[in-house]
């Protein structure tokens, strides 16, 4: 894992940002232009009546002062410093384009479970239609045995705590955006959200009051139903999760950076609304199917540059669809592969930190390029008019390069807000 991280950082440092490609194109024109200016200087001084030696010295001074070292160092040194200091604080930027693009972000879309919440839900309430909660737990546990979903872990942990046996199911299948189904001892069962109920023509029935009350508390609901010729509701689970300690700070820091936060989740509207209200997020997209998350992100991209933050397989399409994908630490490999930035810890405050280091790095690139161009704008005429000899021109050229590198290395002093003494 460490070797992979080192390789990704090295790849990012070696990659060319879009602005560097522009600089390369400018350099392709700049070098021939300098050669032409040196020739004009040589001919001009000779026509002016100066000695051949003086004409050659001034022409050489033009060539020396215009050496495009500072221009070539302006971008890569800033990128190397920016990605390096970001990695030191747990922000793994996988390519230079993501680093540059991130400084333009105007909106951040957060997944809920595992991103803003701890991702370790517990069963807060459950209700069995026949009153036998242990059987309900065993049935739900059997369906989710072997699953890595956080809700599955909550059910299986409860079964383990109560020493309830969990059998194997047959014909198990995942129902995208709805839940999971399988057959237990010949009984076709399914566990999932309200969409699963509607697909089977069922309603909450006697559990409606409990469902409404628990949803108002911000709980995530899962319904256990029996499928078949006469489907029926067997019970209801209500899961509770806690916000990550840094979630509120993250949203507030983004707001201070004039970046809008959005919540995008497949969970029910009640749970999404409670989380959004606690964090001060106004725009909420709830009960969104995994396949539709990417479409929601694409719609938001019409109004600005969008970053998507997620940690699960279901988030991968949205991460890929966003201008910048940010995968939370501890998430799935699929999510990390789809993202341009990976946070090595699950701290939401690293999201505004990643955008901040991007802005600071881009600012350094612009400062370096400005200095490189101003240096040439002033130095070339001085050399052409004989006010700089080749020795002074060489010293000035070296000073320019050192200044650009030193300015870029100032990024090494950057520390993310409120995270100064934390390391991955």
From TrEMBL:
InterPro entries: ATPase_P-typ_cyto_dom_N, ATPase_P-typ_P_site, ATPase_P-typ_TM_dom_sf, HAD-like_sf, HAD_sf, P-typ_ATPase_IB, P_typ_ATPase, P_typ_ATPase_HD_dom. Its EC number is 3.6.3.54. Its main location: membrane. Pfam families: Hydrolase (PF00702). It is found in: Cell membrane; Membrane. GO terms for biological process: copper ion homeostasis. One of its GO terms (molecular function) is ATP binding. This is Putative copper-transporting ATPase PacS. Belongs to the cation transport ATPase (P-type) (TC 3.A.3) family. Type IB subfamily. SUPFAM superfamilies: Calcium ATPase, transmembrane domain M (SSF81665), HAD-like (SSF56784). The gene is pacS_2. It comes from Pseudomonas fluorescens. Keywords: ATP-binding, Cell membrane, Hydrolase, Membrane, Metal-binding, Nucleotide-binding, Translocase, Transmembrane, Transmembrane helix. The chain crosses the membrane at residues 29-48, 54-74, 369-388, 394-414. One of its GO terms (cellular component) is plasma membrane. It is a multi-pass membrane protein.
């Amino acid at each position: 894992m460490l070797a992979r991280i080192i390789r990704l950082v090295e790849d990012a440092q070696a990659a060319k940002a879009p602005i560097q490609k522009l600089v390369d194109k400018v350099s392709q024109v700049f070098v021939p232009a300098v050669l032409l200016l040196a020739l004009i200087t040589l001919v001009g001084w000779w026509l002016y009546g100066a000695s051949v030696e003086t004409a050659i010295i001034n022409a050489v001074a033009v060539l020396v002062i215009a050496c495009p070292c500072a221009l070539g160092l302006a971008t890569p040194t800033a990128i190397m410093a920016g990605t390096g200091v970001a990695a030191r604080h747990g922000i793994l930027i996988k390519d230079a384009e993501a680093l540059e693009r991130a400084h333009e972000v105007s909106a951040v879309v957060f997944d809920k479970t595992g991103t803003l919440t701890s991702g370790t839900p517990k069963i807060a309430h459950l209700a069995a239609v026949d009153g036998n909660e242990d059987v309900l737990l065993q049935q739900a546990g059997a369906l989710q045995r072997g699953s890595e979903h956080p809700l599955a872990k909550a059910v299986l942990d409860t079964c383990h705590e109560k020493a309830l046996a969990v059998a194997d199911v047959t014909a198990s299948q995942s129902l995208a955006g709805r839940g999971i189904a399988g057959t237990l001892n010949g009984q076709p069962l399914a566990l999932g959200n309200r969409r699963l109920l509607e697909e089977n023509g069922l309603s909450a029935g006697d559990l409606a009051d409990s469902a409404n009350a628990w949803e108002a508390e911000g709980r995530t609901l899962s319904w256990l139903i029996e499928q078949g010729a006469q489907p029926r509701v067997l019970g209801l689970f209500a899961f509770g999760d806690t916000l990550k300690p840094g979630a509120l700070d993250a949203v507030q820091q983004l707001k201070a950076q004039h970046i809008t936060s959005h919540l995008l989740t497949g969970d029910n509207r009640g749970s999404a609304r409670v989380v959004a209200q606690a964090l001060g997020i106004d725009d909420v997209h709830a009960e969104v199917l995994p396949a539709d998350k990417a479409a929601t992100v694409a719609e938001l991209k019409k109004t600005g540059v969008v970053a998507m933050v997620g940690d699960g397989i279901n988030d991968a399409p949205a991460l890929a669809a966003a201008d910048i994908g940010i995968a939370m630490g501890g998430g799935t490999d699929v999510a990390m592969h789809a993202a341009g930035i990976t946070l090595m810890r699950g701290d939401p405050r690293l999201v505004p930190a990643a955008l901040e280091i991007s802005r600071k790095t881009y600012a350094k690139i612009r400062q370096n390029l400005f200095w490189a161009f101003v240096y040439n704008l002033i130095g070339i005429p001085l050399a052409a008019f004989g006010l700089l000899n080749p020795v002074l021109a060489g010293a000035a050229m070296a000073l320019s390069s050192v200044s650009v590198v030193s300015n870029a290395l100032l990024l090494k002093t950057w520390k993310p807000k409120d995270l100064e003494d934390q390391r991955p």
